[in-house]
Amino acid sequence: MRFRPPGRRDDVPATRAGSSPAEGGVGTGRAGAAHEQPTPALTGEGGTGDPRPGDHEATVAPAPTWQRGERARAGIRALAIGSAQLLLIAAALVVVGWVLGRLWVILLPIILGLLFATVLWPPTRFLRRHGWPPALAAAVVLLAFLALIGGLVAVIAPQVADQVTELADQAADGLEQVQQWLQGPPFNIDEEQIGQYVDQAIDSVQANASNIAGYAATGASAVGNGLINLVLALVLAFFFIKDGPRWVPWLAAQAGPKAAPHVAALSQKTWSTLSEFIKQQALVGFVDAFFIGLGLWILDVPLVIPLAVLTFFGAFIPIIGAFVAGAFAVLIALVDEGFTVALIVFGIVLLVQQIEGNVLQPIIQGRGFNLHAAVVILAVTAGSSLAGIIGAFLGVPVAALIAVVYRYTRDALDGRHPEVAGDGTHARVAGDDDGAVLTRGPASQAPPAG
């Protein structure tokens, strides 16, 4: 049996038409026969037009060449090198993540202090431009900031204290209404069954008293650590706004003349990104607080101002903050006004938060940070899964900073000189042994000489 390509028959000789095997073809002579390559005889059966019975047809795939093995080995070698590089990068990221996790106790106050500094720096700069000493300007602005926070607490606390007793009584009445509602159709639960459910809940709480105490201790410890981090962040913010203008020249001087323009440009871009984040979160929080507070005021729900302030600050903690603020508003509406008003408040809160979370916040942050809305949402999700509430709060600014560094590096590699400002100048280090300052000078295509 012979193996033939489709359409080739055994009884047809593999020679040109009109020629014989001995002559090598008409008009070609022995020279043509010398150049004619005989068709190799391959064993097998099948093929189109084969008169012999066969249960399959011959493959139409081409025969392998010697280059196939060499190219396969080259591809496997490239794949192995790429895999090794990917594993090294992954290992480096794991090490960096572990180091950052160990240093998180130090990094968190620094990050929060920088965020506070972005809020406090504009008034501090205003005072310094009008002749105030740096330390005095920073101290006055920081104290004014703390006074503002304290004033908000002073305004909110009396309203809460005046209405807490009334709300407690209304809460008890609300529970009785819920009990009566459960006793009616469609549940038809009698008072004895409700008492059994309450007793079971009490027994469950008593049985897990040790676990609950442990959770409470953990929560108290977390609150204590949060307060310590907050105080430390405020102290660091004072030094940031007092000595901040000196840090970039110091960093540029440590890096050297060639790297000074890049250090200054990256510092300015990252600082602008953090400032933009705070401004946008404040705008989103104001929109949430205004519309939810307006809805509560129209529905005559008590504690409108405290709930609006809580909603505003909750906007700085994506997802969790909005959920907690909305839950408080719905609960107070349920206790004070009843189920119908509470349902309306729930609809208002849900509508505002959906517009804020899916439309307003991604659009504002996407435009300000030049990030796609999907990247903003994924950054919040990844941050919350990695570091909880703080991670959700810091997810977007961290993603924006990564994007800033990536774009700057990309432009530098493409030779676009991102260190050059719009007026055609870049930063340069000037000074002597007594100190260094940053000056602006005309930029050339070539980097400054070292």
Task: Explain what you see.
The chain is mainly alpha-helical and 450 residues long. Among the domains are: 1-58, no CATH class; 71-102; 252-450, no CATH class. Helix content is 72%, strand content 4%. It is built from eleven helices and two strands. The chain has helices spanning 29-35, 66-102, 104-129, 134-183, 191-207, 209-255, 260-298, 304-314, 320-337, 339-369, 373-413; strands spanning 425-432, 435-442. The chain has a two-stranded antiparallel ribbon with strand order 1-2. A hairpin with a 2-residue loop joins strand 1 and strand 2 (435-442). Helix 4 packs antiparallel against helix 6, helix 6 runs antiparallel to helix 7 (260-298) and helix 7 (260-298) runs antiparallel to helix 8 (304-314). The longest helix is centred in the middle third of the chain and has 50 residues, at 134-183. Residues 8-34 and 445-450 have low confidence and may be disordered.
